[in-house]
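Exercise 7. Predict the joint structure of the components listed below.
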Amino acid sequence: MISDRRPDDMVRITTPELADAFIEEQLKALREQIGDKKVLLALSGGVDSSVVAAMLIKAVGKQLVCVHVNHGLLRKGEPEQVIEVFKNQMNANLIYVDATDRFLDKLANVSDPETKRKIIGNEFIEVFAEEASKLDGIEFLAQGTIWPDILESEAGIKAHHNAGGLPEDLQFELVEPVKILFKDEVRIVGERLGLPANMVYRQPFPGPGLGVRCPGAITRDRLEAVRESDAILREEFAKNGLEGKVWQYFTVVPDFKSTGVKDGKRTFDWPCIIRAINTTDVMEVTVEHLPNELIDHLVNRIISEVDGINRVLFDYTPKPPATVEYE
Ligand code: XMP
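Solution:
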């Protein structure tokens, strides 16, 4: 049995050997806890839920049922990677739900940031609960809770994202195999479980996804401009050795248009804002100063490849006063 709390004297997992020992111990505990029962997991493709999935696939194979809800606000290639890694490579029991239309229809004409977040959160729980109610014999719910989540919820900083949101008739016993680990430990464990490096070392990505990078009321065309420009930015950061070096980088497409000119004709399109930041605790953030050549190249690619964009702007504001995300 693995303890519920991180022991004070627990050695920080910094090497493959320590990760392997943790995995071995955890697999044994999971098999004891779960027996021949079924476990359900909301698999977002983020670091924590991916590592939990990989661990449970090793422990109980097809007794794990993963549900990947695509809310239409994921980055380019994300749902595809979840399917490729978990269904094709790890042979997981994976239910893929494309709920894009449901989410975007509910979000249409909603411009208030907090209301947008609430709609996304509530709709997520609804879609997940619907999928869960179609399944028989599930006794456990797995979650990617990690040690800082528990510390922060105890300190009253943030609500512990446990099963609290699920309807009454869908209460399961929790399985939380990485809950005594810090983030850096979760990444090493994930690597040792065979997850790709770009999955375990990926930059932070907010739960409401690209929805907060499409400020104001989300439209499909502007959302597509955010997704395509983000994909270009990530590709260029990877090519230029900045992936894994810069803490977080993304694009935002605000809801206003300005005049431009293309092929001798007037355009009236959106700007695309690039934000690249560094931090250790996300309370204070500094800006990454990009090389001039890369700046020129990014501008050129985004204005020529992304529909609806005629200007590229760079956000060089630290936090405080500006938060990382725009909403
Ligand atoms: P802010 O904008 O508050 O962002 O300076 C700090 C960090 O938190 C991430 N972030 C979120 N992560 N759900 C999340 O899981 C959210 O609703 C959310 N909002 C912001 C943000 O990307 C940054 O890394």
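Discussion. The chain has ten helices and ten strands.
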